[in-house]
Amino acid sequence: MAYEHIKFTTDEGIATVTLNRPDKLNAWTRIMEREVRDAMEAAEKDDSVRVIILTGEGRGFCAGADMNLLSGIEDGSEKREAGAVYGTKAYNVAVRSDFQTQYSYFPSISKPIIGAINGPAAGLGMVISLYCDMRFASREAVFMTAFAKRGLIAEHGISWMLPRLIGHSAALDLLLSSRKVTAEEALRLGLVNQVYDAEDLMPAVKVYATDLAQNVSPRSMAVMKRQVYDAQFLSLSEAVAIGNEEMIKSFASEDFKEGVAHFLEKRPAKFTGR
User: Fold this and answer.
1) In this model, does residue 251 exceed pLDDT 60?
2) I need a surface site. Which of 108, 213, 244, 271 has the fewest CB within 10 A?
3) Looking at the domain covering 216-265, what would its CATH class be?
4) Can you tell me the mean pLDDT for 241-261?
5) Distance from the first to the final alpha carbon of the chain
6) pLDDT averaged over every residue in the chain
7) What is the pTM of this model?
8) What is the pLDDT of residue 90?
9) Contact 274, 254 (CB under 8 A)
10) Which CATH code, of 3.90.226.10, 3.40.30.10, 1.10.10.10, 3.30.70.260, is assigned to 6-212?
C-alpha cells in the first residue's frame, strides 16, 4: 500500500520502516501510528523478511507526538480516536496481553526489530525506540523523555521498559529531569548497543541485520525473543522449564538439522525457519 508518513522497503531479508516527516523531525501522528503498525504486520507475515529496521528520515528519529495530536487531547477528540482504533485491538493471541497495547506490540513481532536512531528521540519517540529489541545510534542522536516538562507522566509503559534497560535510579533521573542524553551517555547507560558516526550508522546497522538475516535461524530468533520478553514475568525455575521444553522442540526442527549440516559441511546456512 501507499504510505503518507512512512516509507517501507524490503531487500535481501531486511524490511526497513522509515518515519518520513523530516520537516517535522518525524513527529508522531495517528497516520504514522497506523502506518507503522501496518508495516510491522506486513513484515511479520512476509516469510522472506528475517529482520526489521526502524529509523527516521532526515535529521531526526522522532521528536515525539505532533503538537496537533497533543492539542486534540484537550477537547477529547484524540482520546476518543485512540480508544476507538486501538483500545481493544489484539495483535496476536499467542503472546502475552502485555505486548498487545497501543505501543507495546513490538515484542509480539517474532522478528528482531533494530532501532537505527539517527537523531533526536524525544517523548513518544523515545518510547518507540525503547520497544525496539536493540538500538544503534548516530553520534547526532539525543534522547529525552520530555513528559515532566509538558505536565505529563511516564506514558505508554516507559516506566516498565526504561528501568529494565538502565536501572531504577537512572530511569528516574531521565524521567524527572527530562534532560537531554547524548548518544555517548546513552551508550554508557546501556540505553543503546552501539554508537556510530552519522554517515556510518545505516551501513553498520545493515551489516548487522544482514548477518542475522543470512546466517541465523529465524526460528531460533523468534523463540529467543519470546523467551527474553516473557522471562521478565517468570521465576528462574519457570524460565528454565520453558527453556528445556523449547530445546526439545528445537532438536526436532529443520533449522537444527540445517544448523548442524552447514557447520559440518563448511558452507553457508540455508535456514527455512521451520
Assistant:
1) yes
2) 244
3) mainly alpha
4) 94
5) 29
6) 90
7) 0.90
8) 52
9) yes
10) 3.90.226.10
